[in-house]
Each structure stands twice: as C-alpha cells, then as structure tokens.
C-alpha cells in the first residue's frame, strides 16, 4: 500500500495487496446479454487501434458471432465513421439503444449522442470515465457474443475505469513497427497485469507496404521489433496488418465491413480459444 493511500481504490492504479481490481465491476443493463468482452488497447495514439477494433469486429460478425463495439475513445471517437453510421442513438426509460451497422454490429459511441458529430468533447477525466461506464450500464446490448471495447490510447484514467468497471475477458494490444514499441508494449502489459486481465496477444498495424508490382514487402517504418518484444513478454503475435490504400479508403467511405481480408483469422482463433468456457 502506498504511504499516500487515501483508501479510495477507484481513483488509484497502484498494484497493492489490499486492492482487488475486480471489486468495482459494474453490472450491465438488466436487459443486456453480453458473453465476452475484449479490450483493444495501444500504449500510444495513432497506431490505428480504432481501425483494428472495427476490422476485428467486422470479421467476427462475418464468422457468425453477434458482435458489438463499445467506443471508449470518448475524445477521439472513430467507430461510427469506420462503419459509416450517421444516425443518432435513441433511448427510452429502459435505456439507450445501440446503433446497428450495415452487417448488424451493435455500436455505441459518444458521436452517436452528440447533436453534431464534429463537436469536440471537452470534458474532464471523471466525466469521460462516467460516460464509458454508462455505455456499459445504460445501453441495452442484445445477445452479444463478442463485445470489442475500443479503449482510449495510453494507460490513463479512462483505461483504468474500463478495466475496473467492465469485466474484460482479455485484451489485444495494437502496436506499430517503431522503435518505441517495446516501451509502449511494456506499459500496456504492466497495466493489464495490475488489473488482472489476460493479454491474448499483439497485432502490429502498418507493418509493411506491399509493392503493387512485385509483391515485395517494404518496411516503411524500418525493421519491426515485434518478434523480440513478443518474446520478452511471451505474447502471441496475432497478426501483422499491412498499410494499404484499401484500408484508408474503406475507413474514409465508412465501409470497413466491405474489406474482404484474411488478416484476422489467427486473431479470431486466438480470441475464441482464450475465451472459451
Ligand atoms: N493499416 C492501415 N493502412 C492504411 N490506413 C490505415 C491503417 N490503419 C489505420 N489507417 C488509417 O489511419 C487513420 C487513423 O486510424 P485510427 O482512427 O484507427 O487510429 P487510432 O490509433 O485509433 O488513433 P488513436 O489511437 O489516436 O485513437 C484512419 O484514417 C485509418 O483509415
């Protein structure tokens, strides 16, 4: 226990013997059914975490799982954009209803509640964290096999709230092939360990560009350090996703579900395997 302990574990990330990270877990809406929750995290912003969350969800849905995405990236919400969702969420006295994507993925994001999706969310940490909790407690999620939580980048306040209040079954770490990766993965790994959440593996985004003429893989960010980092932390590599105009175009068009790719087959297998009863 820290000598500065004020006995309020809800605002503290210290790994101390007297705290149980799961003791703040909140119940979802009584009308919700959610079987498994997967957190998608990155140690820093700009690695394409939201894109990976959307593509993972789209591929789970294609495999026949009822899938949902809870956009916990409150100040940088990009899930509705990736799925081309422009309508607002509705609610009644029972709760708030998620908005369904073209292929039936249930989504909830702060952008579905704002009058204008371009309005910035200028809120302090506790309000942001409270919103994420509401997405869990007040939204009516129907028959969800896999819910993906698109976490805010980094290891701050909101990430802490998600781990403390939502029963996350496992996390997937998203990285990009840059020098900083080992420090960033270390932070994410330590946070998951402190919160007692199993890490299912790492997905590297923007791993390479494939030459359209000869098929050669060009490592634009330099040589990937993923294998070394994965070995240090004994984490499976679940996929290496290329940087490709097809992803950028699908994201811009709000049509991520139309991407027909097999990049996530290993990740799907590992997530299903890690979360089976
Ligand atoms: N592999 C890729 N190839 C091409 N474009 C990509 C790829 N991954 C992401 N992008 C593009 O990069 C932009 C940012 O992606 P995204 O919103 O997922 O980032 P992010 O990491 O979630 O950001 P933040 O971490 O700050 O929330 C999007 O426009 C997306 O289309």
Automatic annotation (TrEMBL):
Keywords: ATP-binding, Hydrolase, Iron, Iron-sulfur, Metal-binding, Nucleotide-binding. The keyword Metal-binding applies. GO terms for molecular function: 4 iron, 4 sulfur cluster binding; ATP binding; ATP hydrolysis activity; ATP-dependent FeS chaperone activity; metal ion binding. It comes from the Bacteria. ATP binds at residues 43-50. InterPro entries: Mrp/NBP35_ATP-bd, NUBPL-like, P-loop_NTPase, YlxH/NBP35. GO terms for biological process: iron-sulfur cluster assembly. Pfam families: ParA. The keyword Iron-sulfur applies. Binds and transfers iron-sulfur (Fe-S) clusters to target apoproteins. Can hydrolyze ATP. Belongs to the Mrp/NBP35 ATP-binding proteins family. HAMAP family: Mrp_NBP35 (MF_02040). Homodimer. This is Iron-sulfur cluster carrier protein. It comes from Butyribacter intestini.
